[in-house]
Amino acid sequence: MSKLWAGRFEKPTSALLDDFQSSISFDRRLLRCDLLGSIAHATMLGEVGVLSREDAQAIVEGLQGILTDHEAGRLSIDQEAEDVHMFVESLLTQRIGEAGKRLHTGRSRNDQVALDVRMYAKECCGNVLALLYDLLALLLELAKSHLHTLMPGYTHLQKAQPVTLAFHLMAYFQMFRRDAGRFAAAHEEADVMPLGSGALAGTTYPLNRERLAELLGFSQVTDNAMDGVSDRDFLLSFLSAASICMMHLSRFCEELILWSTNEFGTVTMDDGFATGSSIMPQKKNPDACELVRGKTGRVYGDLMALLTVMKALPLAYNKDMQEDKEAFFDAFDTLAKCLRTFTEMLRTAVFHPDVMEKSAARGFTNATDLADYLVGKGVPFRDAHHISGALVGKCIRENRQLLELSLEELRAECPGVEEDVYQAISLQACVQRRSLQGGPAPDAVCRSIRRGEEWLARQAAP
Questions:
Q1: Beta 158-164 vs 192-193: how paired, if at all?
Q2: At a CB cut-off of 8 Å and minimum separation 6, what does 150 contact?
Q3: How many domains are contained in the chain?
Q4: 3-state SS string for 322-387
Q5: Given 156, 359, 426, 448, which residue is catalytic?
Q6: Containing H/E element for 197?
Q7: Cβ partners under 8 Å of residue 3, min gap 6
């Protein structure tokens, strides 16, 4: 295929360079965005008189025909084309003749690709947000089902204090809610229309950039042509949000992996989201969780790849920036697949409240509440902490739990202990008393769920 820019050159490019610089294998996914952007550009050129109405109409109809063929699966993409932009312009010229050569008036591939990637990034942000909203709705549903499911809370992976499964799930709700905010912000960053920036210094044609933004659904236009073609911060924001979201998924997966072991036994993964062993017949491996955990590093790599590409680029556009797309596309594909798989895996997982409560009863998760009880009897906290710790030590030596100690044994360490101590350090009481906003008491978690539902409803509102 003859290069559309070849007029200045006296010999064809090397086959090695053609292969090396070709991006059609991956930027073909921008074809729809490129066609929509070109339709808007041609429409605007006709409206401002840069193109005749006849040429503009012929170009728009030709591009719409290509778009129709593409969406119907009838379009064969020329793999010899340098990139998706050249493919579209060359095919358009083949279909409508001389008018097709006028499409590129008033623009450069630099602002054209910036437009395409921004359009695609907006779509990706919207898709990820929809997946996150599905996961967040599931977390709210599960939390409502487990308001009274007692379980141990951990620090340092050591049992710390009793909480509920609802409380634990709502911690992840907050993480994924913040992720949604980051993707909404990335969408806002991408929602700036760069067409009209030209190669780096704008154009002498009287383009109506606000009309282009209107036609393409952008809320504003870029304010500096040089920045307009060289900015990829919006992709870095997407990749950063994707990396943090993958980190949250990975943390959740790590816990599910632990909980599904024989040692914990607090959750059973559905057979549809587990695999077996080729040699050990008894095995049921949480492979979906492990793959999400592993793919987190892949998305981190995509972020680091683009950060490294951009770190030393002089203004404005440089061919290095062609490397933005594969990292971006890979991160989006990976995250979307992980979110879909994880959500359905979590939906089908079976939690075991009885095992969780028994686990919370072991490990002295009520030791802090014993110290607080003693403080209520007038004992200074530091002394109460020491007494509670001494009683824990006694229980460890005798293989007992705090609730199994007699009143006489408790009074041997602190004479002020009364019969009400057993109610005070029951697991239910330990949880129930922590009713401040952000606490694990069922009432507090209910309020948190209600706030979450109200927030989620606002996101779905038009």
A1: unpaired
A2: 162, 163, 164, 353, 356, 357, 360, 427, 428, 431
A3: 3
A4: HHHHHHHHHHHHHHHHHHHHHHHHHHHCEECHHHHHHHHHCCCCCHHHHHHHHHHCCCCHHHHHHH
A5: 156
A6: none
A7: 9, 12, 13, 82, 86
Of the residues 277, 278, 352, 426, which is catalytic? 277
Asked if 50 and 206 count as a contact pair (C-beta separation under 8 A), the reply is: yes
Please indicate, yes or no, whether residues 421 and 294 belong to a single structural domain of this protein. no
Residues facing 162 on adjacent strands = 152
92 lies in the same domain as 124 = no
User: For 74, which DSSP code?
Assistant: -
pLDDT of residue 461 exceeding 80: no
Residue indicated by tokens 């632990």:
258
Cα–Cα dist 440/164, whole Å: 6
pLDDT in tens, 163-215: 999 999 999 999 999 999 999 999 999 999 999 999 999 999 999 999 999 99
H-run or E-run covering 189: helix 165-190
Which is it for the CA torsion 34, 245, 451, 138, positive or negative? positive
d(CA 314, CA 385): 61
**Pairing state of beta strands 192-193 and 220-221?**
parallel
Q: Nearest CA to 190 among 127, 135, 247?
A: 127
Please check the confidence at residue 462 and state whether its pLDDT lies above 60: yes
Angstrom distance (rounded) from CA 325 to CA 302: 10
What are residue 201's phi and psi, to 5 degrees? -125, 25
**pLDDT of 16 over the 90 cut:** no
Instruction: Name 220's bridge partners.
Output: 192
Distances (CA, A) of 113 to 52, 196, 352, 425: 25, 12, 52, 64
Locate all alpha helices (DSSP H) within 2-52, ordered by sequence.
15-21, 24-27, 31-48
- Tally Cβ neighbours within 10 Å of residue 415: 8
b/e map 51-79, b = 16+ CB within 10 Å: beeebbebbbebbebbbeebeeeebeeee
197 is catalytic: no
Q: What is the CATH number of the domain that holds 70?
A: 1.10.275.10
The parent domain of residue 374 ranges over 363-460
Give the whole-angstrom CA distance, residue 279 versus residue 353. 32
76 among known catalytic residues: no
Q: Is residue 193 part of a domain?
A: yes
Percent of all residues in the chain with a pLDDT value above 90, rounded to a whole number: 91
* Residue pLDDT, tens place only, 291-313: 999 999 999 999 999 999 999 99
Q: Give me the mean pLDDT over the 251-263 stretch.
A: 97
For residue 11, give both structure tokens. Answer: 């010999």
CA gyration radius for the chain? 30
Same domain, 272 and 332: yes
The enclosing domain of 125 has a CATH number of 1.20.200.10
